[in-house]
From TrEMBL, chain A:
Belongs to the bacterial solute-binding protein 1 family. Residues 23-54 have a biased composition (Low complexity). This is Sugar ABC transporter substrate-binding protein. InterPro entries: Maltose/Cyclodextrin-bd, SBP. Keywords: Signal, Sugar transport, Transport. Pfam families: SBP_bac_8. Residues 23-57 are annotated as: Disordered.
TrEMBL record, chain B:
PROSITE patterns: ABC_TM1. It is a multi-pass membrane protein. This is Maltose/maltodextrin transport system permease protein. Part of the ABC transporter complex MalEFGK involved in maltose/maltodextrin import. Probably responsible for the translocation of the substrate across the membrane. Keywords: Cell membrane, Membrane, Sugar transport, Transmembrane, Transmembrane helix, Transport. It comes from the Bacteria. The chain crosses the membrane at residues 7-25, 31-52, 59-78, 285-310, 319-340, 370-392, 413-436, 482-501. It comes from Terrabacter tumescens. Belongs to the binding-protein-dependent transport system permease family. MalFG subfamily. Pfam families: BPD_transp_1, TM_PBP2_N.
Amino acid sequence: MHKRALGAAAVTGVAALALSACGGSSPTTPSNTGAAGTSKATTSGTPETPSGTAAPVRDANVDLVIWTDADRSKAVQKYADQFAAENGVSVKVQISTDTRAQFKDATKVGKGPDVIVGAHDWLGELVQNSTVAPVNLSSDVAAKFLPSAIAATKFNGQSYGVPYAVENIGLMYNKDLVPNPPKTMEELVATGEKLVKEGKAKQVLSQFVSKVGNAYFAYPYLSAFSDGGIFATKDNGDYDPNKLIVNSPGSVKGGEVLAELGKEKVLSTNVDDTNQDALFDTKAAPFMISGPWSVAKAKEAGINYGIAPLPSLAGGGAMKPFLGVQMFYVSSKAKNAALAQEFVTNYIPRKDVQLALFEVGKRPPALKEAYDEVAASDPDVKAWYEAGVDGKPMPNIPAMNSVWGPFGQATADIIAGKAGAQARLDAAAKEIAANIAKG
Amino acid sequence: MTKPLALAIKWVLIVATMAGILWVATKLAQAGNTMAVVIAGLVGMGILAVYATRRAVPLKYLVPGLLFMTLFQLWPVLYTASLSTTNYGDGHLYSKEESVSDIIAQSVREVADTPRYKMSVATKEGGDPTTADLVLLLTKPDGSPFVGDKTGLQPLPATGVEKTPVGKITKAPGYTILNARQANARSKDLSAIAVPTTDGGGIKPVGLSEAFEGRATVTYDANADKLTDSSTQPPTVYAPKDARWVNVADPTVSFPQGWKESVGLANYTRIFTDPTIRSGFLGIFVWNVVFAIVSVLSTFLLGMLIALLFNDPRLRGKAVYRSLLILPYALPGFVTALVWKGMFNQDYGIINQTLGLGVDWLGTSAGAKAAILITNLWLGFPYMFIVCTGALQSIPQDVREAATIDGANAFRTLRSIIMPLLLVAVGPLLLASFAFNFNNFGLIYLLTKGGPFNGADTSIGSSDLLITYAFRLAFSGSAPNYGFAAAVSVIIFLLVALMSIPGFRRTKALEEVN
């Protein structure tokens, strides 16, 4: 009897402690940390901000609902208000922390917005899930945009939105260490190694590779060769999911360059998103291959940076990056389809709107007129644009989802020297083809 | 407490619960979910029957637990199981009918060499803007006005017509022009309008101020259950196959929009027959069990040792040490995991730098596993420390004294007196910790994402747990396939349940020691 009471006391004591300590059934870590780390700080302002990472709740009483990320919300809000005043309607701009997923889920249950702001490579997935509607821009308005930006808004020959910005990666270099940007990869490596030898830098180049690889950053090495790349294109310019070229002779040549640079420690799987900017911003690396998103940090660190096109590879041509196009989509289940179409087709192509969106993102505007005005005064924008002038839009076909993982991992393995370029890219092609076939 | 007061409180609570259920039911009714409304009603009636009467006393205690168990345990399990027999996933979200109407709607193309019209939405004069038939007042690029409705396009007499500088008609005799809000309210009717033209196309509105002549290139033949795309020469025919519209002539080509359908046990068959999954599943499962067991044991041992140390009455400043030791537990786990990830970096990480090692922690299979176990030890030992401290303090001093008097040395006391008493209290928590670590998604995802991926297969990583593997199948990879991931989850659920049974038996045995 005595012993039993004792045991019970111990149990209750511990249980009480356990309850007060963790308040749930998660003994070691908070259980709510999964879900892809999509949370992003939201700024306060006129646009409605959601609490935490939950999807915004659609307001039933307004005539047009727009979802965007926090960065763009203020610029969108300004023109949404103007649109509302001109048409005598009410418009609400809501911040979504993960528009791609939240839009899909909310639309499925009939609570999605009318318009979303997003990247063009979501398109295939959005069409596949029947969540976006065609946007019929007239040909004379479409002609006012950069052709590559308009091409990016199309899927199966149908147009699905209006672009407002184009982004791509380029070569950032530290002007204090390197007065003139190198034109070729040999030149880059030689300059970098000289600086390392002189003790002015610790490594040649900072490029996002990571242990699982990064297909977006590895692609330009393949595209530098004549038939290198990921998918071949159809006659109408669309990417063809049945024509995989990741192991074409050109792609393999690109893979061999990756292997060589990996051997020379120019590229390393230990550089990833967590330290890529830091290496450049602490002057450990005189060169960094990155995009406009890295500029603000470099500026803050006081780096005298320059932006140049990616160098060319021996035996091939210039490395051509992927273009990412930011655009406005109209939901296929929009409750206010007419106003949504009106806003997207009539407002977004305006120069002042494109300029305002440039101010918040600092990506080259997709509208030629707006780009010309910005490029005249902002050398960075001109440099980014020129770095991407030969680039092709990232594939927006759903099959691209099957590529990112296997292709990225293949490039990481090649850089780490785990496998030869030909063999590893052949294996990646086989895996990608199998994944596409599985659907 | 006086009886009337208790009664009042009881009725207030009952009424509040009823109001809550009513609120939920109205929300469900708004969402159009009849079945759920009925269930909510039944639950409400059940609660009323149990608590408003004097009968069913045992149920008064059991109902809340039963309700929550159904809501948070049974329902998710049943829902997952039902999902696992479908192909639900990207490209298979809606019904077949919806896929047909969507494909047709998306196939509308602008007819070549046709003008763009400026457009206003209107009704015949005197018509009700919310219900009357809509007409489109159109202006060709040359400025000539037209009126279009479902019968066709007619010229509009120019007298009395007023236009904006760009040509949008703002006034026309015989018609009432709708303002933006009125027109928007008719969005559904507007999207259905196609003013027929002589060449088989239709003039359709774009927004509220423009119209174009478009034609759907895909048609559906309901009798043959086939889609025909006339934009190619010769027209392409698509037939349903595996929940998609597949080109009859070239089966590698299909429309991206498929539909949701039941696939029976195909997802389960795939788990057990797909060679990559089969070979990977066993490896993942073994590592998963090893990970969970080692995590529990290592954190428990370290936590217990520190707790024993700090339980010594001679130690001073215990409060300070104890608070410091709880820190790793108090910090958000995902921050800690990311910090450790940085510390394990081969070139830049502090671990290799201070120890002068060149270990590729996150790039080799053994390194990644070691890194995960070390990080989890750091994250998990404070919890065990707290739990053991609590349990140790509840073991009375006289038991130990009795052992000392009987001649037992310190180790013997620990093994024969303290450990059994401690395990009675901590045993169930170790089991819970095992179940939690078995599905410790956050740690793996933040530290290694399941990698490194060896060989030419990126679907199975060498540090994957079953749960991260299921996540990759469901949400990343080629196309998110919820049905298949649900099947994997059901299997995981069964595995954890099976493994818990001997565990619970063992705890029972421990309790019987007393």
